[in-house]
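Methods — Computational structure assignment.
A single polypeptide chain was analysed. Its primary sequence is given first, followed by the predicted tertiary structure written as structure tokens.
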Amino acid sequence: MDTKISITDKIETDEVMKLYNANNWSAANKPEQLLNALRNSHSLVTARLSGKLIGLGNAISDNYLVVYYPHLLVHPEHQRKGIGKRIMNKLQEKYIGFHQQMLTADHDAVEFYKAMGFKNAGNTTSMWIYEGKEH
């Protein structure tokens, strides 16, 4: 069966928690905040296989110049099959032509995003206050 990629706001707590826990993301430790953040994103794209959530990506934007992509994750059983690329492409369709498309990448994700056309932002340094432990 083909994976369905769509912009939506229809997500359920249990399916999101399974996806985030499968990827060991610390945001799963704050389920209420995580669901509110995803549901209130400027855009939320999901990937479903036979109705089951297997990936998602979201965007935060001013709707004119800047978009930030905070989350993109695919269930480990479905990684390296082009699903993340399809999610990112769907997000970028909406934000094509924006002055800045930004994200933070680490680990193996760096090469993935480079292949999607992202590059290091000049001499800038990523900075944050972060409560998670996975980075």
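Note: The mean pLDDT is 93.
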